[in-house]
Write a structure and sequence with these properties.
Elements lengths: L2 H22 L6 H5 L5 E5 L5 E8 L2 E8 L8 E2 L12 E2 L6 E5 L8 E5 L12 E2 L9 E4 L7 E10 L2 E8 L5 E5 L5 E6 L5 E7 L5 E7 L2 E8 L5 E6 L6 E5 L9 E5 L6 E5 L10 E4 L6 E7 L3 E5 L2 H13 L4 E7 L5 E8 L2 E9 L5 E5 L13 E7 L5 E7 L9 E5 L15 H8 L3 E5 L9 H5 L8 H15 L3 E11 L1 H12 L6 E5 L5 H6 L6 H11 L5 H10 L12 E6 L7 H14 L3 E6 L9 H19 L9 H10 L29 E11 L2 E13 L3 E10 L2 E10 L5 E8 L2 E7 L3 E8 L2 E8 L11 H5 L9 E8 L4 E17 L2 E12 L7 E6 L4 E9 L5 E12 L1
Parallel strand pairs: 30-31, 30-32, 32-33, 33-34, 34-35
Antiparallel strand pairs: 1-2, 2-3, 3-4, 5-6, 6-7, 7-8, 9-10, 10-11, 11-12, 13-14, 14-15, 15-16, 17-18, 18-19, 19-20, 21-22, 22-23, 24-25, 25-26, 26-27, 28-29, 29-31, 36-37, 36-49, 37-38, 38-39, 39-40, 40-41, 41-42, 42-43, 44-45, 45-46, 46-47, 47-48, 48-49
Length: 892
């Protein structure tokens, strides 16, 4: 053989080898197969076994459907018709008369409870009734009693946004009956098997958890665990005396265990902890027929089960033999527990749902949620571990792209959200999607993850961006050292805390990653803590203890150091930022500020904001658009594969939610330590004003009329606003100092809410009485208050307004009972027409400095320095818009 023949033979072998390698890699799977709404999901049997309900898109949005158990799925009928938000979950009432679900608006997390009558579906789609229709209210479901199937026990936070009062709710009529006002920091209620209220859980001021016995005369504390420990009641024992509880109380206890606790004697009896001594107690499955434990579950590398009921164990073994190598989940069942819907899945199978009759052993296929998924193209997920920077062993899951040699591949690290959560083995849409595109996918359970004991969990305390980030970085090192990943083609992608870890990875280890995707990720830990929703008051102390306390100098310095925004000048990696405009947890300002910081440095940054989403995307059209851009972005910088084609409606939506980064403005940086209030250019004048008011909530418009009277009382002005409401006359009376126009005191009377405030140079004190509950108000004032109360717009009108004028001041936010720094800015000049006439005005914008909702615009007549129009967003009314226009005014 000549040298040329040898060369051609070698080239031929290389070509054949390449062709073989490419042939082994599966084809691209359409991303809609991964992420579009499941064809059918969430199947449930009615209590009597006569019907099967399920979730399926109706006119493009996931809704609830129902069919007879012997009917085909094609014969099913929709029973809800929500066109704005997909319904994510639901359940049957105990008597099978209603289907119940919770839903919010636009991702704002103000969840309401809805009921629908499935028996009315034969006459068309029945109307879903909002059973908790109260503005700015987040409903919780505590219990669905056996003794009265028409009853539910729910919590509502309409009286106090931080705490939920306990109500009974009559499903058939929607009647709500207040049972207990929550003035004791109660976070949960526990009823016994006879539906008697027996226990409550309380979050103490120091962050510890207290278990309270509910007695006729009040509460008695019977158990307690520290802020870094776990304890909670699960279910009462059928003896009515003891309650099953999960706890890891005590210095000698690391893993949570199941115990029996006697609330009277306070005796604790151990029931079970992990037989292998590796992970926390998972959960217990109980029979509603016998009230006995059926099985206990532990989430290790995979789920481990320990059966306590021999008949259930035999049934499970029967199903295992029928579906070898699969995970089997016992889902919905009939009231007698004879018939079940069971799910069968694995890491390479998104699952199928079967009907199972325990008596006859009949197993009948019902549906696959993703029937078009080519299972043979999916990749195995393997449990691994690796040492971190300090030697701590980090458990993780590794998914290698199928058909490719695990050598020098592009990789994507996917840290989970929480961070107090964990990843699990099984089918994962993101892992499979990215693997199909040719990426190695690593999902690390970094320190601070749950399930591995309190020592592992507490090892993450105050380690955001530090050792927690090391655990992720050392995962990259592991992949590179093993030869699996190409060190120049590693990306990071995550949501919520995973989004923070993405930003932290790019800011603190800029040489590790070649691309990053942050989905609703906080960039500034101080502003994140300052914007926590009111209903998280019970865990705010835990946040500050696990993350850092912004109220202490050392805590603030630590949080500033750990905030990626403050190290944005170190980022050298292209970044894609994704945000929901209505996110109540991670406000849009968190994403705005990191985008601006990178744009100003000229670094590649892309930005997607969905106006109808919250903490994560729920609407399929938004999700598909975001994923299409994410896929292309990662391919551009990591050299993976991507699907360029998309449906026209997806392409249009992507264009709509893609933000021009040059249009993003930086949230105002304000000095809240300055004690100087804005100085008015003019004083007020005595007189009266009448306004035409319109409140818009969706398509609903509520007209009103308000009056403002300014009275001269010597050294002060008394400003009284009044309006007629369905609850009677509402008044807001504020006394302000002449010339400085700073508030001295304020009195509010709005139906069931009354408030009295006194202002001084360094504090605001008083009391709010809402529905009979008295709430003390006592705040230190870091910056003088201004325009806080009645006539605020007319006070602002007296400032020396001109083009580019800007100032800051503080207000008391009554909804959250917190001080807020406000930024006021003249944003332009405009001619406006209102009932009182046409005016040349300065357009003034006032908004919270921390990026919270609650923006107000005011139009001030340049000639008279009087406010003639305002438009305010009202967060307490789910973002309703109130427009106020001057009708007439007269001096007095």
């Amino acid at each position: 053989m000549t040298m040329f023949n040898t060369l051609f033979l070698a080239l031929g072998m290389i070509l054949v080898s390449s062709v073989t390698l490419l042939a082994q890699q599966p084809d691209l799977i359409d991303r809609e197969i991964f992420f579009d709404d499941p064809e059918i999901s969430g199947g449930q049997l009615s209590p009597d076994g006569q019907y099967i309900s399920f979730l399926k898109p109706y006119e493009g949005t996931r809704n609830i459907w129902v069919k007879g158990v012997d009917e085909t799925f094609e014969e099913a009928r929709p029973v809800t018709a929500d066109t704005l938000r997909p319904i994510r979950g639901y359940f049957w009432s105990r008597d099978g008369q209603y289907l119940l679900y919770v839903q919010d608006k636009g991702g704002n997390e103000d969840f309401h409870v809805y009921a629908v009558d499935p028996n009315a579906a034969d006459q068309g789609i029945p109307e879903a009734r909002d059973l908790t229709a109260r503005d700015s209210t987040r409903a919780l479901i505590y219990a669905v009693p056996k003794s009265d199937p028409d009853l539910m026990y729910v919590g509502l936070n309409d009286r106090d946004p931080a705490w939920h009062d306990l109500y009974s709710l009559r499903i058939s009529s929607g009647e709500l009956t207040l049972l207990r006002e929550n003035t004791e920091r109660i976070t949960g209620w526990k009823f016994d098997l006879n539906d008697k209220l027996r226990l409550a859980s309380r979050s103490a001021q120091d962050g510890s958890t207290e278990i309270l016995r509910v007695d006729d005369e009040g509460f008695t504390k019977v158990y307690e665990c520290g802020i870094f420990e776990t304890c909670y009641p699960v279910r009462f024992h059928k003896n009515g005396r003891q309650v099953y509880m999960v706890t890891n109380q005590g210095d000698d206890s690391n893993l949570t265990q199941l115990v029996l606790f006697d609330p009277q004697s306070q005796e604790v009896t151990a029931v079970e902890s992990d037989p292998e001594g590796k992970v926390d107690f998972g959960y217990a499955m109980f029979s509603d027929v016998t009230d006995e434990i059926v099985a206990t579950f532990y989430t290790d590398e995979k789920t481990r089960r320990y059966w306590k009921d021999e008949t259930y164990q035999q049934d499970y073994q029967f199903l295992q033999e029928k579906f070898p190598g699969k995970e089997i989940g016992l889902g919905s069942n009939t009231e007698d527990e004879k018939e079940w819907l069971v799910t069968v899945n694995s890491d390479t199978d998104p699952g199928a749902t079967y009907y199972f009759n325990r008596d006859t052993k009949e197993v009948a296929m019902q549906y696959r949620p993703r029937p078009e998924m080519p299972l043979e193209s999916l990749s195995e997920m393997k449990a691994i571990s690796y040492p971190s920077s300090d030697g701590l062993e980090i458990p993780a899951y590794l998914t290698l792209p199928k058909g490719m040699e695990a050598k020098n591949l592009p990789a994507i690290i996917v840290p989970h959200g929480g961070p107090w959560a964990r990843d699990r083995w099984g089918y994962n849409s993101y892992a499979q999607f990215l693997s199909n595109r040719g990426y190695v996918v690593l999902q690390p359970n970094f320190r601070g993850s749950t399930g591995y004991g309190k020592q592992f969990l507490n090892a993450g305390n105050k380690e955001w961006g530090q050792k927690m980030q090391d655990d992720i970085t050392w995962g990259v090192k592991y992949l590179v050292e093993e030869g699996i990943a190409d060190s120049t083609r590693v990306g990071i992608l995550g949501g919520s805390y995973g989004g923070y870890a993405t930003l932290a990875g790019l800011a603190f280890t800029p040489d590790v990653y070649a691309a990053g995707v942050s989905i609703v990720g906080p960039s500034n830990l101080i502003t994140l803590l300052n914007s926590i929703p009111p209903y998280w008051e019970s865990i705010y102390k835990l946040f500050t203890e696990r993350m850092g306390d912004p109220e202490t100098p050392e805590g603030r310095a630590q949080l500033e150091r750990q905030s990626p925004l403050n190290s944005a000048d170190q980022i050298e990696t292209p970044l894609l930022v994704i945000q929901g405009a209505n996110d109540p947890r991670v406000k849009q300002a968190e994403s705005d500020q990191i985008v601006v910081a990178l744009r100003e440095r000229g670094f590649p940054v892309e930005y997607i904001v969905a106006p109808d989403e919250g903490h994560g995307f729920a609407r399929p059209v938004n999700n598909m658009a975001m994923l299409a851009r994410t896929e292309e972005f990662l391919a551009k910088y990591l050299d993976g594969r991507y699907q360029s084609a998309m449906k026209p409606e997806i392409a249009q939506r992507l264009e709509e939610i893609t933000v021009d980064v040059n249009s993003v403005t930086m949230p105002q940086s304000v000095d809240v330590t300055a004690a100087v209030a804005p100085e008015p250019e003019q004083d007020l004048e005595a007189g009266s004003y009448t306004y035409q008011v319109t409140i818009e909530m969706g398509e609903q418009k509520i007209p009103m009329e308000t009056q403002l009277e300014i009275k001269d009382e010597g050294d002060t002005w008394v400003m009284v606003e009044s309006a007629q409401t369905p609850m009677g006359t509402a008044t807001d009376s504020t006394v302000v100092q002449k010339q400085t126009l700073q508030p001295l005191n304020r009195r509010v009377n709005q139906g069931p809410m009354k408030m009295s405030l006194t202002y001084s140079a360094d504090s605001v004190t008083g009391e709010m009485n809402a529905n009979g509950q008295k709430i003390a108000i006592d705040h230190a004032v870091e910056q003088a208050l201004f325009a806080d109360g009645a006539g605020a717009s007319q006070i602002i009108a007296k400032l020396p307004l001109k083009e580019d004028y800007q100032t800051t001041y503080q207000n008391l936010d009554l909804q959250s009972n917190q001080m807020k720094t406000m930024v006021l800015e003249v944003i332009g000049e405009e001619e406006v027409t209102v009932p009182a006439g046409t005016f040349k005005t300065y357009r003034v914008e006032v908004k919270p400095a921390n990026g919270d909702a609650g923006q107000t615009e005011i139009w001030v007549d340049q000639a008279s320095q009087k406010a003639v129009k305002s438009k305010a967003v009202i967060p307490a009314m789910s973002g309703a818009v109130m427009t106020t226009e001057l009708k007439n005014s007269k001096a007095s």
